[in-house]
């Protein structure tokens, strides 16, 4: 198996462990057991638990941004599509929030999360720019603020205090 194929296999197994046991149940040892590989293979790919969680976070972020980009192609209502896609991540990829939370406090991970947030803001700016009269810097700041609002809505959604439809409508309304 190629190194990339092995890494993909390990990340798939890591996702399965997180779904089954939560992020607290994911260690390099539990991953080796779940993937039925030796511990040195897992250590070679990720080095540390933080390295593993960060790789998993990057994978989930990549999957989410790819889905958003695809959904935006030919979209008539950009705000609605961005909103639906954002909250689909919260419901379809619940591991994303769990992995993100598990990375809190790790300086390397927080730097990477900040970088990925920047990438998501760029995606939003690109999608909303044709519909906005704001200067690029102002639009970027608004997108950052929108994502903060979306995080608050996600907390409400995950605690069952609002429905996905309410979250989507509120977020789309803010973008408009």
From TrEMBL:
Asked if the keyword DNA-binding belongs to this entry, the reply reads: yes
Q: Which superkingdom is the protein from?
A: Bacteria
Keyword Ribonucleoprotein included in the entry's annotation: no
One short Pfam name that applies is TetR_N
Q: Which InterPro entries does UniProt cross-reference here?
A: Homeodomain-like_sf, HTH-type_TetR-like_transc_reg, HTH_TetR
Gene3D superfamilies found in the cross-reference section? Tetracycline Repressor, domain 2
The protein's name is TetR family transcriptional regulator
| Organism annotation | Kribbella albertanoniae
Give the classification, highest ranks: Bacteria, Bacillati, Actinomycetota, Actinomycetes, Propionibacteriales
């Amino acid at each position: 198996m190629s190194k990339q194929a092995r890494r993909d296999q390990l990340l798939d197994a890591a996702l399965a462990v997180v779904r089954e046991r939560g992020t607290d149940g994911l260690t390099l040892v539990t991953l080796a057991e779940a993937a039925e590989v030796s511990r040195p293979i897992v250590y070679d790919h990720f080095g540390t638990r933080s390295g593993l969680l960060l790789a998993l976070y990057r994978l989930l972020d990549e999957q989410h941004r790819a889905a958003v980009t695809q959904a935006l192609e030919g979209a008539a209502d950009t705000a609605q599509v961005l909103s639906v896609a954002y909250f689909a991540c919260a419901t379809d990829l619940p591991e994303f929030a769990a992995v993100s939370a598990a990375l809190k406090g790790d300086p390397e991970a927080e730097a990477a999360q900040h970088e990925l947030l920047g990438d998501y803001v760029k995606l939003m700016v690109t999608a909303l720019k044709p519909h906005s009269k704001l200067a690029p810097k102002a639009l970027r700041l608004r997108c950052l603020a929108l994502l903060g609002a979306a995080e608050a809505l996600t907390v409400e959604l995950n605690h069952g205090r609002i429905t996905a439809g309410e979250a989507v409508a509120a977020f789309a309304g803010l973008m408009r």
